[in-house]
Amino acid sequence: MLPKIHIVLGGIFALLMYFIFHITFFQASLIFLSSFLIDFDHYLYYIFIKKDFNLKNAHKWFVKKRYNWIALSKEQRSKFKLPIFVFHGLEFFIILLLFYFLNKIFLGIIMGILFHMFLDFAELYYFKMPLYSKFSQTYVHFKNKNKPEFNI
Question: What is the reported pTM?
């Protein structure tokens, strides 16, 4: 999902949580920020693959790659590696839960990330992409064995 959609829907979600459940402005801000900043791992992935730190280039590259990926059939997509996004998986979520037990401030971050992941899963389902790609990055790693990168 494109960042601007995560930002807009994350903002709406945070506002709803603020007004319906009367959470603090700080908690709502954590929900909002975490609902899209989780995608920082996409930028890290771009840096790792392209050895380029330019954020605009990263955005253009991902938009083009996403468009080309969606254009492929389900069978064609299955032949290529899926990207590993370290913040999009059960492994990272477990770490956040452990931090939550140390400090309740992580509840807002967890809520924002859960909302983000809900949107990602909805998009994966809509485009008939494998849900495991955002469930476990360890599993993605093993499923990627002997597959080529998807280059645009």
Answer: 0.94
